[in-house]
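seq as requested:
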Amino acid sequence: MRYSFRIIPLCCLAMLGCTSGGREAPVPVFPVTGVVTYNGKPVAGADITFFSTDGDRSAFGRTDADGRYRLSTFSSNDGAIEGRHIVTIVKVSAPQQPAEQVASIESDAYVPPGEGASTSPPPPKSEVPDKYGSQETSGLTAIVNADDNNEIDFELTD
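struct tokens:
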């Protein structure tokens, strides 16, 4: 019985040695970058997702002011897994309340919904066609290769 207390800690240490502790990706990923444009203009702040057709991990990125993106799967900007991907791109902005409506609202006055200036806000507006936001309708695909420069651009149109 006194030996079991020595074996348990050793087993725990052995099990820790078998795990990666989150330091390594379970599958290799490869850097993926590119530019997203809509009708010839860069799309800033768009979310781009690569969905692996093998059912493995997805990769995600967000475009900068120039429409450039870098994908992340397990850690920031590490890339995407090798293979074929279905791609979605979404860019949504919250509509702004008209300036005259904002100016007429007293900051500490409560206005019940449906009365006066307090109404439901309009729904968010998509800044790229909605079809690009769905795996079923985007029509966008990409192939990530281990031995390639994975610079993948997307030109969105109406």
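Residues 1 and 69 are 59 Å apart (CA to CA).
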